[in-house]
Design goal:
With 416 residues, this protein is mainly beta. Helices cover 7% and strands 43% of the residues. Strand 16 and strand 17 form a beta hairpin.
């Protein structure tokens, strides 16, 4: 009980008096493979219907069978903590230990696999829609990582289509998302002020377009037919590899080597920018844990050291190359920064990853933090991308932002 009170106190101390935006926190080195999902088999951004279950899983690679605790915070549209009391948005209590865990079996890398499912005995579900953040603490009250998720009410319907941008300067490189919101059972009051739309490409909140206002209001329909305001860079199809069999080279893997653990050396890539677009089926930056000869991927999938290499000239000192994908929630940190090897004329990086199928791409980040996703891969209007549209509504006098609608589309059938 003392430990729980300590964690609760630390959470209060970490929460500023003046609400500011809450950001996801990357985990320490021994926390790996965070999969956070709803009623989908993929490890993607959780956008779930109010009342549906939520599952968070992760591995701890220190072989200590640590105790971890979770705290849940309701947030506004802009990811500042809402003013709602815990009892207003949560049925039951949080600040509880994650009691479901299993140890790895027959693996070179020893780890414990943790699973948190909501609803559970103590946290029985959510009462409000909107944005949420979950914080995971260790037994000493130290924050391990945090993740965002969204819960929506299935009230407003969203229809969307993807088109090429009308800007002739970037018509070969960008895609525009046009959509229509039907308010359904809600009569939107003053929608120019009370309704906010969010468009997310490939489950990546870092590049989401926010604060879109309706361009036209026709009865109970809100139309968004912008050209520039809702345009995304098309990017390129993700590169991928699969190492579900650690003993044999598989898709994207040149050769393997057994040291303390298995090492997987990927084929060296080269920049694709400036080349002709080539369709290459991917899962839009996602990843999936798979093992060829195992019944339980949670505890029988092993960890391998994956070696990435990119052959290209060295960039100026104010620019760096990173390995980008949903395997770490699109984070940019030292763990996925590539180092230039002047002797070999290429960028290199090694990461410990669980067996599976992974999408990734190489991106450039400058010293100001600007991310150039197409700087190495290129941008193409033909690229197949997934788009999610989320509709938030705060009625006049309301105390929080409801998430009242959710729509999804792809650029498979993109039109002019």
């Amino acid at each position: 009980m003392l430990k729980k009170l300590l964690i609760g106190l630390l959470f209060v101390l970490h929460t500023p008096i003046v609400f500011s935006q809450v950001f996801e926190t990357s985990p320490p080195d021994h926390i790996k493979t965070i999969t956070f999902k709803g009623n989908t088999p993929e490890s993607q951004l959780p956008v779930i219907r109010l009342g549906d279950p939520l599952v968070l899983e992760f591995d701890a690679l220190n072989a200590k069978e640590e105790d971890f605790y979770y705290i849940i915070q309701h947030c506004n549209y802009d990811w500042t903590p809402s003013i709602l009391a815990k009892t207003e948005y949560l049925r039951g209590i949080d600040n509880q230990r994650i009691s479901t865990y299993e140890n790895s079996f027959n693996t070179y890398e020893i780890y414990s696999h943790y699973t948190l499912t909501i609803p559970n005995t103590l946290t029985r579900g959510f009462l409000k829609s909107g944005n949420y953040m979950i914080f995971i603490y260790d037994d000493f009250g130290e924050l391990m990582f945090s993740r965002k998720f969204m819960i929506y009410e299935d009230i407003a319907s969203v229809g969307a289509v993807v088109k090429r941008t009308r800007d002739m300067n970037t018509i070969q490189e960008r895609q525009t998302v046009n959509f229509v919101i039907n308010s359904g059972r809600i009569n939107f009051n003053n929608p120019m002020e009370t309704v906010k739309a969010l468009v997310v490409q490939n489950n990546n909140l870092n590049t989401a377009i926010i604060n879109l206002k309706p361009q036209y209001i026709l009865g109970n329909e809100l139309e968004y037919r912008y050209s520039e305001e809702s345009a995304f860079w098309g990017g390129n199809e993700y590169l991928y590899f699969e190492n579900r069999d650690v003993r044999v080279g598989n898709v994207g893997i040149q050769f393997i080597d057994l040291k303390d653990i298995y090492n997987s050396y990927l084929f060296t890539q080269e920049p694709r920018k400036g080349r002709e677009y080539t369709y290459n089926p991917d899962i839009n930056g996602n990843f999936k844990i798979t093992v060829i000869d195992s019944r339980d991927t949670r505890t029988e999938a092993d960890y391998t050291m994956v070696h990435f290499s990119l052959r290209m000239p060295e960039l100026p000192p104010n620019e760096a190359v990173f390995i980008y994908g949903n395997y770490n929630s699109y984070a940019i940190d030292n763990s996925n920064r590539m180092i230039y090897n002047s002797d070999r004329g290429m960028y290199e990086c090694s990461m410990k990853l669980k067996q599976g199928f992974y999408n990734y791409k190489y991106v450039i980040v400058d010293s100001e933090g600007y991310l150039n996703e197409g700087g190495i891969s290129g941008n193409y209007w033909q690229t197949e991308n997934n788009y999610k549209i989320l509709v938030y509504y705060r009625d006049l006098g309301a105390r929080f932002d409801r998430l009242v609608g959710f729509g999804e589309t792809t650029s498979v059938n993109i039109t002019n």
